[in-house]
Amino acid sequence: MAITLSNFVPLTSKTLILVMVLVVGVIVNGSEARPNNNNNNRPKAFFVFGDSLVDSGNNNYLATTARADAPPYGIDYPTRRPTGRFSNGYNIPDLISQRIGSPESPLPYLSPELNGQRLLVGANFASAGIGILNDTGIQFVNIIRMYQQLEYFREYQRRVSGVIGATGTKALVNQALVLITVGGNDFVNNYYLVPYSARSRQYPLPQYVKYLISEYQKLLQRLYDLGARRVLVTGTGPLGCVPSELAQRGRNGQCATDLQRAASLFNPQLESMLQQLNRKLGRDVFIAVNTAQMHNNFVSNPAQFGFVTSKVACCGQGPYNGIGLCTPLSNLCPNRNLYAFWDAFHPSEKANRLIVEEIVSGSTTYMKPMNLSTILALDATT
Asked: Angle at Cα 256 formed by Cα 254 and Cα 261, nearest 5°?
C-alpha cells in the first residue's frame, strides 16, 4: 500500500519508541541469521594431515613417546621454546601458511585454543609416528591414526557449522588448501622396523608398496568425500639417506639401499595413483609433490644450498648424530642453517624452506600438475 497523507497516522512518542525497538530488533536478528560468510577477504583455510614431518603439536596432548616438547626442539622458533614441531624452528605447514597469507599457522586440532574465529584459519590433524596403515607406529601407542584424523576433520566441520553455518562451512572447506604427508613411517616404523617384521613376512616389498598405494587411495577418496578440493600430496623423501638410517643401515656413509628401493617404488606409484584419481574425478584435486627430488637435491649436493653436511644431524648422538632422540643431553650444532637435517629423521628449518620454495614455484619436475602459485592464481579467479 502506498503511503499518502490521507492514510498517515501521527505517531505518539510511546508508539515511536516501540517502532524503533522493533526496527533495531529486526536489524540485529537479521545480522545474526545471516552471518558475514564472505570469504573474499579471508585467506584460504588450511588443513594438514599426516605424520611428524607436519605435526605441529597434537602429540603434546597425548600419552605417547612420539613427542617433540622438550629442548632443544624449537630453539629457532620465534618463542625459542619447543612447540611439538619436530624441527629447530618452523615446519612445512608454518611456511606454507605464510605463503598463502594466513594470519597464523593452523593450530593442532587437540589444542584448547582452537575455537571461535580461529577455527576459520583451519586445523592441523597430523600426529607423529602414524602411517597409512593402522598398525604402523604401534610402538608409540597413543597417536592419531589416519582414520581418526579424518574423523576429526568431520568433527571439525560440525564445530565450524556452529560458527558460520553449514553453507559457509562447505564453502570454507571446498575452497581450502590441504596438505597430507604420510607413508614414510610405513617403511621405517613398520616394514623395516625389525628384521622379519610381520609385514615383511606377509608381503615382498613390491606387493607391500602396492598394498600401501591401494590403502592410501581409500584415504584420499575419503578426504575428497569430506569436501577437500585442493590437496597437496607429498611423496616420501630419500628414506635411506636420513642420519638414522645412515647410522643403522648404511655402509661407509652410503644411503641404506633397502629403504632407498622402497622409496623408489612408492613415489612413482603414488604419482600415478593421484593422476588416476584426478581423471576419475574430472578435476585436478590431488597435486603430486615430489619431495624425494626436493630432498635429493641437497642430499646429493649440500654445498650448493649452503649446507656443510646432509649426513650428520644437527641434534643427536652416535654415528651421524643418528642414534636415539634429540634431547637436552644430545650433541647440538651451533648453526642450524648449515645442516640439512635437524635430528635423526627430520629436515632443518632451512631445508624445509627449500622444500616449500619448490612447492610454491617449482616446475613440473617437482609439482604435478601445477605448483602452489598456480593453484592460488586459478582459485583467485573462481
From this structure: 125
| Chain CA centroid to CA 166, Å | 24
Tell me how far apart the alpha carbons of residues 116 and 41 are, in angstroms, rounded to a whole number: 18
For residue 287, report the phi and psi dihedrals to the nearest 5 degrees: -110, 120
User: Where does 133-181 show beta strands of DSSP type E?
Assistant: 177-181
Based on the residue annotation, tell me whether 295 is a catalytic residue of this protein.
no
Question: Is 77 part of a structural domain of the chain?
Answer: yes
Residue 7 lies in a domain: no
Question: 156 with 111: CB under 8 angstroms?
Answer: no
Among residues 51, 52, 97, 330, which one is catalytic?
52
CATH number for the domain harbouring residue 270: 3.40.50.1110
**Is 346 part of the annotated catalytic residue set?**
yes
Annotated catalytic residue, options 244, 295, 343, 348: 343
What mean pLDDT is reported for the chain? 90
pTM above 0.85, yes or no: yes
C-alpha–C-alpha distance, residues 176 and 190, integer Å:
32
Mean pLDDT for the stretch of residues 301-322: 97
Domain total in the chain: 1
Given a contact cutoff of 8 angstroms between Cβ atoms, the answer to whether 298 and 304 are in contact is yes
What residues make up the domain containing 124?
Answer: 42-380
Strand partners, 367: 289
Entry field: residues in the chain:
382
Query: What pLDDT score does 17 carry?
Result: 39
- Is 279 within a domain? yes
Query: 628414506: which residue's cell?
Result: 239
* DSSP 8-state class, residue 132: S
Q: What's the rounded Cα separation, in Å, for the pair 333 and 323?
A: 16
Rounded average pLDDT over 150-161:
98
Contact 135, 190 (CB under 8 A): yes
Residue 52 annotated among the catalytic residues of the structure: yes
| Average pLDDT score over residue span 127-135 | 98
- pLDDT tier, 7 (very low <50, low <70, confident <90, very high otherwise): very low
Helix (H, G, I), strand (E, B) or coil at 382: coil
DSSP 70-103: STTTTTTSTTSS--S-SSSS--HHHHHHHHTT-S
Which of 87, 310, 346, 348 does the annotation list as catalytic?
A: 346
Q: Establish if 20 belongs to a structural domain.
A: no
